[in-house]
Amino acid sequence: MTDDAQPPQDIRQNVSTTGGSSSLVAGRDATQHITTAYTGPPPPTPTALRSLPRDVDDFTGRDHQLQHLLAAAGPHRVLSVHTVDGMPGVGKTALVTHLAHRLAPHYPDAQFFEPLHAHTPGQAPAKPVDVLGDLLTRLGTTAQHLPPTLEGRQALWRDRTADQRLLLFLDDALDHAQVQPLLPSGPGCLTLITSRRRLIALNGALALPLDTLPSDEAGALFLRIARHTSQPADTAPLARIVELCSGLPLALVILAGRLARHPAWTLHWLADTFAATQHRLDELSAGDHPGDLAVRTAFAMSYRDLPAQRQRVFRSMGLHPGPDTDAYATAALTAIPLHQARHQLEELYTDHLLDETTPGRYHPHDLLRTYAHTLTTEHDAAEDRERAVERLWDYYQRTAQSADRHLTRTHHPDPPPPAAPAAPEAAAPPLADRAGALSWMHAERANLLACLDTATTDQATRMIDLTASMAAFLYQEGLWTQAATLHQRAATAAHDNANLSAEAAALDELGCVRLMTGEYAQAAGFHERALALYEDLDNRLGQAAALDGLGCVRLMTGEYAQAAGFQKRALALYEDLDNRLGQANALHELGSVRLMTGPYVQAAGFHERALALYEDLDNRLGQANALYGLGCVRQATGEYAQAAGFHERALALCEDLDSRFGQANALYGLGCARLMTGEYAQAAGFQKRALALYEDLGDRLGQTGALYRLGCVRQATGEYAQAAGFHERALALCEDLGDRQAQAEVLNSMGALLAESAGPQRALASYQQALKLARQIQSPLDEARALDGVAHCLVRVGDSQAALAALRQAVGIYRRIGAAEAKSAAARLSALKAEDVGAPSSAEESTD
User: Fold this and answer.
1) Interior CA angle at 602 toward 600 and 608, to 5°?
2) Residue 183's CB: how many other CB atoms inside 10 A?
3) How far apart are the first and last CA of the chain?
4) Is residue 501 predicted with pLDDT exceeding 50?
5) Do β-strands 166-173 and 190-195 pair in parallel, antiparallel, or remain unpaired?
6) Rounded to the nearest 5°, which phi and psi values hold at 838?
7) Residue 424: is its pLDDT beyond 70?
8) Secondary structure element (H or E) that encloses residue 534, with its range
9) DSSP state letters, 306-367
10) How far is CA 824 from CA 740, 766, 845, in A?
11) Residue 62, pLDDT above cutoff 60
12) Listed residue (294, 286, 278, 300) closest to 353, CA to CA
């Protein structure tokens, strides 16, 4: 070996010390001498190139996500880094493990699995420098050649993987800073990452957020783990277990494993026991050791890493009674500034401790909500929790009252004074107009109802006031059955607390919603009770509202004289109080009464006066109602083009206002106008759209009208069987409602249909039923149409004298109310008179 030659690495150097002189040679101790011996090549460094965990034998479901990942991460991929993120226990590792085994044949050089321990109990998150040391060692790098720094190891890792076809599975990543140094550089490499956190800062990665399992896949997973063969009787208890676990795979696996280990247990028994437990999270544990499967432990490891304020915000989710929240409600609940609440919610979403339902609105998984409730009970004092809930009530009540001012259809008789806030007022969204108010009510409806459902006896006043603030919204949205339940509860609470004004207001609202559900007797009773209370209180505005309600009920029951009387009394009170919105409402209702009784010129006058007031008040919903009323009047007088124009204006307003009830009415009116002008396809289209809205709203009276008019369209086009079907459905509905006017109208139309399809005798019976009802309720138009039909049938059976008498009566009524049918009926009367020269003449028989 030459002096400058380097010894091979496998030559060991042995240093020994012997006795001798202390002379120095070339700066070295002469007593030391070095000996070398060549011992051959060292043993190869052990490598582990196939370290994927065992595939999941019971992997179930996730077909869509798996196929998506296979397509995105397969041999023809575009991106080389894929992340799967989701809440604790959602099955991220199982999915990616299963995926990795499917992809392994495409990466023959190595398939590495590296747990990063972001949420492993008792273990700190892995450091990138240590993970790189492990990965490089697996590739054959010896310990003495491992660079000591993160940068050195990262450079070596990228060099060693530059030409490799390698799959790297990084499980349970903490954040992008932990993952970024570990990414291989070679184009043939694929990296799969799971994390509870959305790795939004990881550039160039394709993310797949993983949600809980849908019910069918959740049930299949449970049965597979439980080794249970499904029977028809298992459907209900299985669905119950899936619902109680909210589709969380970890919870399902734990429960299914317990069932598999207990042959004596049944699915029914497990479902009942799990539903009844007071500590559901304690039941979702597979052992007592830290490493055992447990939902609470999985949640706790995520909660542990949150900053203090974020922990507090998360705990507050356990106090919120509703399904979701936003920054405003969170700021109120936690007493932090709005911008901080918004930031903390976004971070909890990033950590998969909240899901985002719509932009800016968040909710936790049901089991996470349970965990949050447990945490706040354990960590927050009772008085702190009570104050937080009071702040939330303050926020919801104050903002609901603000929204109601844009939505109310009339002035409240006795608006509740604002409650004293439990703390300085929290920020509230700016509700500048009806659209903003309606949007807020839609978004918060479930939360407001949850507050009402969980209100305690001590919160009776809050419950009453919040119910009142929701009244206009519930009414306009067609949520009448739900509104009736809430108003009844408010009326009872007000009565128990001797709050007569609030009781009267709740009773009056009950009357309004019972009218819409067709329970006319109940509606009248509630309005009468409200009127009596308001009279005792000498509250004239309340009296006017109750009288208006009674007038509406009498209109629907066909008691038109009483209806007009009540509305005139209401109008007088409103005028005396200078309440122009009330005046407009009463005038509109008087127009509706005159539409039924005539003369139509009076009906048009009332609606026009109402429209002028609504326009002056800039009340667009009122304008739409008045325009609809004018359209109905113009149709009754045969001015079909004008009628359609009014209905089109009403429809445009209601669409802009997002009033489904108003849209349904306007569509119905348009369908009626198109029917009269012979545009049958358009008429049917409008009525079908109206019917769909009425059905969605649960408005059975509206459904009756739309079905009846669809029957008229089919009758006009000669489709008699279909026409009869629509008429029969309409008749059954109005009979069930007890609406005699609607029954008379449908029976008249059925008479016309039977006259064309079944003969005069059957038609005559239908007309006579209509005539009897019309006279009972004093509906002149329905009476005249029934007499007109009777005359037609009598002519066909040869009784011309009786036909003349009936037709004379019909013409007289048509003329008195100004109906469009007057002229054509008078012409038929003259023709019939000419055929029967012995009939007495009458001035009414003129065709002028």
Assistant:
1) 105
2) 20
3) 138
4) yes
5) parallel
6) -85, 0
7) no
8) helix 520-536
9) S-HHHHHHHHHTTT--SS-B-HHHHHHHHT--HHHHHHHHHHHHHTTSSEEEETTEEE--HH
10) 27, 22, 11
11) yes
12) 300
Q: Is the separation of the CB atoms in 36 and 14 below 8 Å?
A: yes
Residue 276: how many CB atoms within 10 A of its CB? 8
**In the prediction, which pLDDT does 691 show?**
96
Q: How far is CA 554 from CA 294, 428, 533, 618, in A?
A: 63, 42, 20, 29
CA–CA separation, 668 and 169 (whole Å):
62
Per the listing, tokens 């259809």 go with 409
Q: Label the pairing between strands 81-85 and 190-195.
A: parallel
The token duo for 739 is 């609406």
User: Using one digit for the tens of pLDDT, what is the confidence trace for 650-676?
Assistant: 999 999 988 999 999 999 999 999 999
Burial class (CB in 10 A: 0-12, 13-18, 19+), 790: buried
- H helical segments located in 739-817: 740-757, 760-777, 780-796, 800-817
User: Is 265's pLDDT higher than 80?
Assistant: yes
**Does the model's pTM come out above 0.90?**
no
Residue 351: CB atoms within 10 A of its CB come to 21
β-pair partners for 34: 15
| CA pair distance 680, 17, nearest whole angstrom | 117
Q: Which helix (DSSP H) or strand (DSSP E) does residue 440 occupy?
A: helix 434-453
CA distances from 222 to 87, 219, 683, 749 (A): 19, 5, 53, 58
- What is the torsion angle, in degrees rounded to the nearest 10, for the CA atoms of residue 421, residue 424, residue 429 and residue 435? 30
Query: Taking each helix axis from N to C terminus, what angle separates 560-576 and 540-556, rounded to the nearest 10 degrees?
Result: 160
Q: What is the DSSP string of 258-318?
A: HHHT-TT--HHHHHHHHHH-S-HHHHSBS-SSTTS-BHHHHHHHHHHTS-HHHHHHHHHTT
| Angle, in degrees to the nearest 10, between helices 620-636 and 640-657 | 160
Q: What is the pLDDT of residue 76?
A: 74
Token pair in block for residue 271: 């479902």
What's the mean pLDDT in 712-735?
A: 92
Cβ-contact 319, 373 below 8 angstroms = yes
Please state, in angstroms and rounded to a whole number, the distance separating the CA atoms of residues 794 and 801: 9
Q: What value does the mean pLDDT take over residues 356-362? A: 93
Tokens of 712: 């008229």
Task: Judge residue 794's burial from the number of C-beta atoms within 10 Å of its C-beta, 0-12 exposed, 13-18 middle, 19 or more buried.
Answer: buried
pLDDT category, 2, cuts 50, 70, 90? Answer: very low
Extract the tokens encoding 585. Answer: 């409402």
**Count H helices, E strands: the chain?**
36, 11
Q: Which of 825, 805, 813 is nearest to 774 (CA)?
A: 813
Statement: residue 416 has pLDDT above 90 = no
Instruction: Answer whether residue 327 shows pLDDT above 80.
Output: yes
- Host H or E run for residue 193: strand 190-195
Residue 302: phi and psi, rounded to 5, are: -75, -40
Banded pLDDT at 806 (limits 50, 70, 90): very high
Q: How many CB atoms lie within 10 A of CB 523?
A: 24
Query: Given this model, what pLDDT does residue 819 score?
Result: 86
Closest CA to 700 of 733, 671, 660, 655: 733
At 62, the amino acid letter reads R
In this structure, what token pair is assigned to residue 720?
A: 């008699």
- Judging by beta carbons within 10 Å of its beta carbon (0-12, 13-18, 19+), is residue 828 exposed, middle or buried? buried
CA distances from 441 to 398, 523, 813 (A): 13, 26, 48
Residue 703 pLDDT greater than 80, yes or no: yes
362 backbone dihedrals φ, ψ, rounded to 5°: -130, 155
Distance of CA 644 to the CA centre of its chain: 34
